[in-house]
């Protein structure tokens, strides 16, 4: 059923990777995605020290006997991240798959992971960066289009353009990300040359997603026009849901506000507050333009299975 080099590489049932989402992709949610036949990805940056990260990995192992990955963030962060510490734990705890995302991965980081027998994928926003990741030893590369939610970079390249360019240029398998939320998107990505997809925003509207029900309901009513790029002034552009907090950030950027003023609105403590309390304007959350395609809150397994079944119908119709 839709077997590709990605399903073979990761040992998963479906060519789908659950996008890593800060404050969301903890052990329980990651295990739910993996148990559904996709690849769950644990957000290492959620855990402030070696031992809390170790406990999270062990908890994930206890909740699923299927493959899962760990994300190592290379994006700028308020709290400096020493990924070397996370790599120590990854190797000690037998994690088999690692995703890096953001800036160019350090060669020594890739070397340590590869020497430890870890399968590595890298997420980026251009073919040039994808080729660098392949040269450094990445086993797969995700190309992330501008319509996606989260860190979209500064180039403005869309998934529809990035995927075939990357598929033509790379020898390793390509994952498509950005604006993919249903089986039609999965089928389209495969037709463009990808061998799997990464979905993030679609997972927000699942029963297992650990965000407040009021926020899920608000997102279920959002349109494809209800997102906006922010943080371009900080060279860390992300696409967010267009709520009051995101509009406030845009206003602060327009008037040249200080970093401290912007962080007071966009900081992780405000996002966590929104996720926990359902105050839908309290913080900023990453959100794809594909939010306009999403209306139903479903169990993760049902959503993923339905996505695959729809993709199969589409592909059969096109043959």
Question: What do you see in this structure?
Answer:
There is one protein chain. Helix content is 44%, strand content 15%. It is of the alpha/beta class. The strands form two sheets. An eight-stranded parallel beta sheet has the order 1-9-8-6-5-4-3-2. A three-stranded antiparallel beta sheet has the order 7-11-10, with helices on one face. It is globular.
Mean pLDDT over all positions:
94
**Radius of gyration, Cα only, in angstroms?**
18 Å
Task: Order the strands across the largest sheet as they lie in space.
Answer: 1-9-8-6-5-4-3-2
Helix fraction bin = 40-55%
Low-confidence stretches: none
The sequence of SSEs as H and E is HEHEHEHEHEHEEHEHEHHEEHHHH
Distance between the first and last residues' Cα: 16 Å
Q: What is the helix tally?
A: 14
Which term fits the overall shape? globular
According to DSSP, the number of beta strands is: 11
What is the beta-strand fraction?
A: 15-25%
Alpha-beta classification: alpha/beta
Let me know the largest β-sheet. Answer: 8 strands, parallel
Short recap of the structure:
This protein has 319 residues and is of the alpha/beta class. Helix content is 44%, strand content 15%. Helix 4 (83-92) links the parallel strand 3 (68-74) and strand 4 (97-102).
